[in-house]
């Protein structure tokens, strides 16, 4: 029989959050070892529970969710999203320009498939959430990474964005609050990105899935609220993180701004939405009650909240490890520490996290998995309770005591 190969479209695609290191962790688990998984932002395994009223709302509507619905999504859900963004200063928000999806992940892929021709370019932050880069590649496009500056709280380097705009550039991706760095961008940075997009007739894609997970009084500004009628803005968000229902898979994509010039693009998105018939219907009944009570996560991120305490404890513990530095995250639930690669002779950061896993049974993700260009960072989730997090970081410190990469 002829060998069956994977598509060459996958050659430059990676998603190392669930990549080869996780495969090794699964083998270790199958052999009876316990693994502390700090690789993925999944609140449920760490004891975070969804609001009971949302679970009840879905349960009560199961008999109303047995058939296909409008490919854009449940009308009540889309109206709730439109009202939510109107309250946040996006005055063009309309249920007609909102698509509900199986989480933001599906919508990222759909947004790029509907936009890109072969060799079209999209500017994506480095580090990034790797699905953005993968989605561009799978759509036949070329991801071009602009640098976020660790010395400036991981804010985007505007000059680098400007340098990398070409005749083939179709859009700019902004991830705010950022995964993996936890940076939250101020209005002056966002306005500069909006101005660049307007000047070059580029679409803006704003991934705002962590917009409610904020610390220290930090505020979030939706990018679309700063854009005018010259620029198409595509805002992606959902309930997975803010309402602790990652498994329900419900997100949305809002088109606002220069809609007349994006008519063809919207037709393409509508076609792609119709081809998958509709997204998961039961979970869509969570949208309206969730956005009506939009304070779910604040109990965890406030000064006495669990996430805030875990962030503070984890951050202070990281800084006590010789050879590690870290910018304090203002949003989301990740650390993206820098490791002294020269001191530990790290040339391959995937090998580094594999060595840590095999030695200490702690699973993290290498920085290059987020399209960072040097093997000198890694991402840690700070969802575990403080005692577990401290134990993991003690294991990391012990591991680094005499570590040299072979």
Description:
With 406 residues, the chain is of the alpha/beta class. The protein folds into two domains: 144 residues, Aspartate Aminotransferase, domain 1, CATH 3.90.1150.10; 230 residues, Aspartate Aminotransferase, domain 2 (3-Layer(aba) Sandwich). It contains 15 helices and 15 strands. The strands form four sheets. The protein has an eight-stranded mixed beta sheet with strand order 2-9-8-7-6-3-4-5, sandwiched between helices. Strands 11-15-14 form a three-stranded antiparallel beta sheet. Strands 1-13 form a two-stranded parallel ribbon. Helix 5 links the parallel strand 3 and strand 4. Helix 4 packs parallel to helix 5, helix 4 crosses helix 8 and helix 12 packs parallel to helix 15. The longest helix has 15 residues. The two termini are 40 Å apart. 45% of the residues are buried.
């Amino acid at each position: 029989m002829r060998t069956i190969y994977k598509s060459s479209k996958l050659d430059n695609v990676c998603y190392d959050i669930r990549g080869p290191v996780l495969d090794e962790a699964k083998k270790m688990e199958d052999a009876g070892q316990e693994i502390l998984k700090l690789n993925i932002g999944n609140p449920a395994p760490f004891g975070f529970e969804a609001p009971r009223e949302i679970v009840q709302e879905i349960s009560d509507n199961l008999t109303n969710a047995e058939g296909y619905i409008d490919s854009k999504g449940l009308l009540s859900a889309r109206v709730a999203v439109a009202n939510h963004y109107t309250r946040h200063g996006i005055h063009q928000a309309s249920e007609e320009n909102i698509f509900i999806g199986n989480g933001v992940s599906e919508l990222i892929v759909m947004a790029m498939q509907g936009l890109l021709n072969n060799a079209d370019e999209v500017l994506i932050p480095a580090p990034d959430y790797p699905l953005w880069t993968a989605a561009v590649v799978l759509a036949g496009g070329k991801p071009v990474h602009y640098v976020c500056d660790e010395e400036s709280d991981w804010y985007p380097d505007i000059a680098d964005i400007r340098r990398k705009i070409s005749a083939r550039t179709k859009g700019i991706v902004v991830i705010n609050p950022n995964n993996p760095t936890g940076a939250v961008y101020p209005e002056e940075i966002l306005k500069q990105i909006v101005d660049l997009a307007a000047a070059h007739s580029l679409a803006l894609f704003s991934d705002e899935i962590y917009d409610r997970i904020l610390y220290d009084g930090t505020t979030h500004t939706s990018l679309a609220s700063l854009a005018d009628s010259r620029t198409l803005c595509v805002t992606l968000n959902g309930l997975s993180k803010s309402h602790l229902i990652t498994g329900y898979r419900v997100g949305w994509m809002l088109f606002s701004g220069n809609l007349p010039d994006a008519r063809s693009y919207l037709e393409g998105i509508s076609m792609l939405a119709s081809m998958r018939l509709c997204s998961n219907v039961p979970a869509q009944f969570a949208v309206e009650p969730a956005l009506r009570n939009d304070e779910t996560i604040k109990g965890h991120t406030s000064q006495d909240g669990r996430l805030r305490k875990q962030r503070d404890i984890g951050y202070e513990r990281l800084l006590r490890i010789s050879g590690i530095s870290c910018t304090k995250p203002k949003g989301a639930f990740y650390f993206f520490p820098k490791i002294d690669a020269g001191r530990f002779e790290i040339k391959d950061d995937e090998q580094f996290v594999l060595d840590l896993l095999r030695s200490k049974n702690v699973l993290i993700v290498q920085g290059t998995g987020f399209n960072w260009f040097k093997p000198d960072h890694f991402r840690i989730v700070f969802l575990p309770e403080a005692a577990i997090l401290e134990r993991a970081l003690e294991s990391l410190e012990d591991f680094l005591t005499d570590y040299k990469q072979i």
